[in-house]
Amino acid sequence: MFNFIKSWLKYSLKVTLAITVITGITTGFYTPSSYAGLPAGNAITDGKALLRYALPIDNKPVRELQGSLEDIANQLRANKRWGAVSKDLKQASRILDQPSKILASVPQERQEQAEVWISELKSGIAELQEIVNNKQKDPILEGRAKLLTTVSLLEESMVTEFPFEVPQEYSHLPQLKGRATIAIKTNKGDLTVVVDGYSAPVTAGNFVDLVQRGFYNGLEFTRSEESYVLQTGDPAGKEVGFTDPKTGKYRAIPLEILVEGEKEPTYGVTLEDAGRYLDMPVLPFSSFGALAMARPEGDVNGGSSQVFFFLFEPELTPAGRNLLDGRYSVFGYLVEGKDILDTLKAGDKIESATVIQGIENLV
């Protein structure tokens, strides 16, 4: 088991909290702007939202539609701003009144289905507006979640091909050219994660391959008392990672980070070591249950089978910046089972891990 995570997190999270407190005292709220080079605004803490934004598409209307619906949750947290919620819905409705702009990014063979989704979104938004008029918070959040699920399908239909090629030196490793959903059954309950090959094809591909092999079945979790991560993937015996039975060699996985605005990931170097202190990963550590590759402290390309869930409460981290971002490869997010994940401790066990969707994307 790689033990570096505990000491590093204990230090880095103390620094993070200090920055948060300072900016909160100085500005009156926890939305840093110029402090420590942190970007302004609220960090996205919903794994499903992060996965939507990570899709390699370039259609402004559908992103604006998504943004309007995502914002509803922010307004309901902020003293239930009903007027702002209604404004978000009206904005979404206006976007859907021009479906041709959305359909322009959908391949011809998928447009009929896309038109059905757009129609469902129109009627769903109209229904949600009525609920807003009655100021019912829980039904609004439920309706919003359903609408965003449909938006996800619409956005996914716009992806026509894998957007880049993995560098030749890593092309022999398993790759996930798309996404996959993993059901993890533990002794305390079930977790569901979505791993993103569009942003981290090698890291996600390695994980899906190992799940398919049954590698994680029966493995225990480790979590120290002060740690904000839940780690697993250390096989029995002296090995600390996966040894490929075909080669007899340790399968080493490179550090892999896709930065916002770029078309392909960087490999083999942390963003800090590359001098890219302000660059933000497409898949950040801002969500409870972010799934990342563990590695030896001094070897950025030394990861293998050990992975960890990030458990730190995102409300306590500076907006848009976490001190782990750019140092470790996030490759997916927990989408179901947050309450279960929060209860798992050292000694708890993975009973089984199964790919339930997207196995055809593993190459």
3D structure, described in words:
- This protein has 363 residues and is of the alpha+beta class.
- It has two domains: 237 residues, Cyclophilin-like (Cyclophilin, Beta Barrel), CATH 2.40.100.10; 100 residues, Four Helix Bundle (Hemerythrin (Met), subunit A), CATH 1.20.120.290.
- The strands form three sheets. The protein has a seven-stranded antiparallel β-sheet, with helices on both faces. The protein has a two-stranded antiparallel ribbon with strand order 4-5.
- Helix 3 packs antiparallel against helix 4, helix 4 packs antiparallel against helix 6 and helix 6 packs antiparallel against helix 7.
- The longest helix has 24 residues.
- The two termini are 28 Å apart.
- About 10% of the residues have low confidence.
Structural features:
363 residues; alpha+beta; Cyclophilin; Four Helix Bundle (Hemerythrin (Met), subunit A); 2 domains; 7-stranded antiparallel β-sheet; two-stranded antiparallel sheet; 9 helices; 36% helix
